[in-house]
Amino acid sequence: MPAVLFVCPHCEKQAEVQVTSVTRSRPCPHCSEFVVLQVSCKDRKSKRKALLIALPGQPVAADEPLVKPGPGPAYEPQSLEGEVFERMKLDPEVREARRRLFIGAAVVAGLIALAVIMRYLPDSDGEHFTPVVQTDHSAPDLSSGPKPTKLPKNTVGLQYGSPDAKADRQTTLTFQGLSTESEPGTEAAPDLPSEVTSAAARFLEARNTEELISAVADRKALEPIIRQHISEHPWQPVKYATLKLHEDSTNNDRHWRMVALLQDGTKREVNVVIDNQRHLVDWPSYVAWSTMGWRQFMSEKPGSLQVFRVMADQTTRYDHAFADPQGLLCIRLTDPAESGSPPIFAYVDRQSNVGAEIDFHLRESREMPLRLTLRLRYPDDPMTNDQVWIDSVVTAGWITRDMKATAQR
Known about the structure:
alpha+beta, CATH 2.40.50.140, 3 domains, 5-stranded mixed beta barrel, about 20% strand, Nuclear Transport Factor 2, Chain: A
């Protein structure tokens, strides 16, 4: 504790006492009268010093000889009354520190509460907003143009606004979901009929053409097509390890997506549908059948309409007769029936019903390759063998039950 030298206002003698940060008074070591002390400082980092407060009418003698300090303090300080903690709470610095602490805690609590409110604050529609990032910067901006109408899941994929669509109103179309990921709230069918697994197994284990045809739906329309296909691609029983329902499949549309894990580690999808109250396999979707071979189509470049089951994703190739990125939507098509086949680039008017429908399906696919069944044709004077027009959408997916009408068109 520091020692302070002062002159007692009572006996007018010099004395030395020890003081602390909470010292308020000390008795004079000569006359034993209490002397009131005051601690003052210029700033918070300055050292404290004790000042004498003289009582009225008792001046301090300036010529009083100084008392030389001895080896130790002249008088040992006495303890003050009351608790030390209570006296410290009255200290201005302690009170200022407490005030700053309370203000800081209140600010932190307010920021945390604001972050929680912003995290769970819904948008104007009552749903949380999810930003959509456009990765294809070369695509034209269509924000000022008409917006495509959102289609409900598993509805007819053909817009009844074009001339070709009006002629197909009697055609019954069913198709599977657009994405390989399940939508929120969609659960796998818990009541899987045993006939579904049996139908898929009977199809995969077929030993000859007759057994295969008896296990497929739309037999009358597909039998000549299947026989011709088998003549070019001989059928062999499929050796599989497991057969189970696809995790995203439901039976809401009387359609089950089965997945067969083959012994070589690959997977094949088998779609089971209802045909005349029987569970049978949709053969065209299994082999990705089209009305014309992929390479033959590119070689002959026919001007007539051809139905193709394709994998589609959006791209930006605009050249030759299709050099109009503002008016045309470009789709890259690949052949799922033969890996390694060259791609075909298909185009459609963005402002047409077909263009709006395809654009909607592509957005719903979340930038994943999309299964589509399309009618394609080459232009009247084709300049390349890999650029075609999209005439219409048969269905979103690969399942079309009216195969006879599809093949005729």
